[in-house]
């Protein structure tokens, strides 16, 4: 098993453009408060997100900003699979989920790719919280990740409604998602 190296003290940034060139998703990941914080944009939805993760890339909080200073959606987990909203309301339908998936960026697939300790040829299935940025609908869907080789993964793309194989860089970040996103080299 090849683990992806830790990100450096300055973090890591990535930009993807939609294959039609109309939209882009930008993410910057930085080390803060003993964990990772990812700040990103979703060009197609004109939205911003913040994902807070542990040192081992376990999602802890998700904030989505569309057109207000305060988050339109704020979800958090207690680290034991129990999810709730910022107002303290327990979201029992989300319990047991590990990750969050957004249609407008391949970054949300980077999180399990970096975290899952899979050998080549092995797969892992988990329940994922999928979020519709436009309607704020939150739905749980099963997600399967398979490590094809050292730098190739297969997963279900909700943007394409099918399985895709992606190549990742030396840090485990998706380079291109066929028929969906192309990585912009900076």
What can you tell me about this protein's structure?
With 186 residues, this protein is mainly beta. The chain has one domain (12-184). Helix content is 5%, strand content 50%. It has 1 helix and 14 strands; from the N terminus they run E-E-E-E-E-E-E-E-H-E-E-E-E-E-E. It has one helix at residues 107-115; strands at residues 12-18, 24-32, 35-42, 47-54, 59-65, 73-77, 83-85, 99-102, 123-131, 138-149, 152-157, 162-168, 174-177, 181-184. The chain has a 14-stranded mixed sheet, with helices on one face. It is globular, with a radius of gyration of 15 Å. It starts with 11 loop residues before the first strand and ends with a strand. The model has no long low-confidence stretch (mean pLDDT 91).
Give the gist of this structure.
The protein is mostly beta strands and 186 residues long.
Topology of helices and strands:
Elements: E1 12-18, E2 24-32, E3 35-42, E4 47-54, E5 59-65, E6 73-77, E7 83-85, E8 99-102, H1 107-115, E9 123-131, E10 138-149, E11 152-157, E12 162-168, E13 174-177, E14 181-184
How far is the N terminus from the C terminus?
29 Å
Helical amount: under 10%
Spans of at least 5 consecutive residues whose pLDDT stays below 50 are none
Instruction: Outline the biggest β-sheet.
Output: 14 strands, mixed
Query: What is the total domain count?
Result: 1
Q: How many beta-strand elements?
A: 14
Mean pLDDT: 91
Structural class by helix and strand composition: mainly beta
Radius of gyration: 15 Å
Side by side, the strands of the main sheet go 7-6-5-4-3-2-1-14-13-12-11-10-9-8
Helix-strand pattern: EEEEEEEEHEEEEEE
